Amino acid sequence: MSFDALFEPIEIGNVTIKNRIAMSPMNMGFTGPNGYHSDQNTAWYAMRARGGFGLIITECVVMNPYRWRGSESLNPSLLTDNRYYRYHSEMTALIHEYKQCKVFIQLSPGWGRQGHPSVESPDCPAGGPSPIPLEVDLRNLNKGWEKQFRRIAPGLKEIMPDIEVFNNMSDEDYEGVRTVLPGILHQNAPELVHTVFGETPREMTVAEIVDLEDRFAVQAKAAYALGYDGVEVHGPHGYLLHSFLSPRSNQRHDQYGGTLENRARFLLNIIEKTRKVIGPDNAFGVRLSGDELMTGGITHDEIKQVVNWCKDAGANYFNISQGSYENPGAAFAPDGENDFTRWAPGFKDSSGGLPIITPNFVNPETAIAALKTGSTDIISLGRQSIADPFWPAKVKAGREKDIVKCIRCQRCYMDLMTSNWARCSVNPLVGKEKFYPELWLSDTALEKKVNKFMEKAKGLPQV
Ligand SMILES: Cc1cc2nc3c(=O)[nH]c(=O)nc-3n(C[C@H](O)[C@H](O)[C@H](O)COP(=O)(O)O)c2cc1C
Fold first, then answer.
1. What is the pTM of this model?
2. 234 CA distance to ligand 1 centroid (A)?
């Protein structure tokens, strides 16, 4: 089978990406204390650049300086002011060393009600569109999540003897489970109580929303100056921007709630204000859930309309996802692959043909088939890029059989959610990349310069 089509270049705005393989945005918690990029973070991305990805999209970097309750426990990387800048520029420079690998930053105005309380903000509630609590319905778990929940909370065995039975439980029976669940989680993994039962956010004021819109534009502009080739607005998965889009979580009566146009205003203002300051050509896109996949949530038809407005406001590419925390299993982290491609034609049509990035692949055969349908332009690897950073290089070299495949165990996700150092069941190097510079520093422009320098240093008298 020929995989050549995966290695054709493509343009987004004024950026040429050398192939059709992106690394999906993933917060691994590798950032250093207080949101600074760490050496591990840089090594983590550099290894994927060396592995042959044409485009790396960073984890969602938070541009909200207020550190409301929920901001810091996932240990996000920050871009809130110039203290953080130099670490971003160190990282972009290193990624660029690898044969024109490009890097986009995913910028987020915050987690909203999907945050987790932590030490810095125990008494400061998360902001959101309306004071509506998040609640994960655990009957939505897939096999991977079920495995992880059972691992960290052995007490669940009694109430979850069989996932099929559990997932089909009546509302009445589930209510019983709901009553005992917080206690079980509290004993085993207290962080998860808030992930599952969430937080009732306070209603953000209009002044706060406008402030974040303005700040987004300023920080996006800074990101290009720091070497990022593109900026992506983080709008999926139930986080702050999504919670404004969704009628489940947005029940405001002002210009930011009610009609779809009003619910989309926060997102559209961010795009419009940013495009105004960055100029017409830079790569600047949006990630959205193709459908919330929850009763009363935002639908695919509404998302298509939002995509169309985003294009008019100045977005020039789209990155697809689906679902929210309230539907973690079947939605944003499926057990299998190629579940997101179903939204790609909707994004393609509504955006008037702009470049589309579609994640959720494991096998190169599935990825090339999705690309060849023409509805998606770039395939993106999330958990598979954790399992094997060298996926693109192996496919290019005809060594598909050597790919280490992601087994969808959800270990990476659960480690993040429980404030653990992220690990991978099939790749022992995950989280230890910084200790293996030979796997991410060699074969770069930097290495060549250093070798020349060392050559000249040879034979110098000892002092
Ligand atoms: C540990 C982890 C962290 C993630 N963090 C982000 C994030 O910061 N921003 C985002 O848009 N998606 C995030 N995602 C979702 C992925 O980008 C991707 O959509 C999801 O894993 C499904 O794709 P996959 O099947 O290729 O893994 C994360 C996923 C994982 C596993």
1. 0.95
2. 11
The answer, yes or no, to whether any atom of ligand 1 lies below 6 A from the CB of 382, is yes
CA 173 to chain centre: 34
Instruction: Using the atom order of ligand 1, give the atom closest to the CA of residue 339.
Output: 25
What single-letter DSSP state applies at residue 328? I
Lowest mean pLDDT among 114-123, 205-214, 441-450: 114-123
The CATH number of domain 4-117+205-448 is 3.40.50.300: no
Between 173-182, 215-224, 253-262, 291-300, the lowest mean confidence (pLDDT) is in 173-182
CA 265 – CA 261 distance, rounded (Å): 6
Supply 264's token pair: 């989309």
Band the pLDDT of 134: cuts 50, 70, 90: confident
Distance (Å) from CA 25 to ligand 1 centroid:
6
455 C-alpha to ligand 1 centroid (Å): 43
Q: How far apart are CA 138 and CA 192, in angstroms?
A: 12
CA-to-CA distance for 112 and 236, rounded, in angstroms? 12
Cα-based distances in Å from 413 to 94, 192, 321, 409, 419: 26, 12, 16, 9, 10
Distance in Å, CA 382 to ligand 1 centroid: 6
Domain ranges of the chain: 4-117+205-448, 138-197
Q: CB of 21 within 8 A of CB of 52?
A: yes
* Antiparallel, parallel or unpaired: β 317-321 and 283-289: parallel
The two three-digit tokens of residue 458, written as one number: 């040879």
Query: Which of these, 344, 337, 380, 341, lies nearest to 362 by C-alpha position?
Result: 337
CB 236 within 8 A of CB 359: no
460: pLDDT strictly greater than 60: yes
What's the pLDDT score for residue 199? 74
- Name the residue type at position 37: H
Beta bridge pairs of residue 281: none
* Model confidence at 329: pLDDT above 70: yes
Q: To test ligand 1's pocket by mutation, which of 24, 240, 241 has the most ligand atoms within 8 angstroms of CB?
A: 24
pLDDT at 71: 57
Q: How far is the CA of 378 from the centre of ligand 1 (A)?
A: 16
Q: Tell whether ligand 1 has an atom less than 6 A from the beta carbon of residue 67.
A: no
Joined tokens for residue 166 = 């559990």
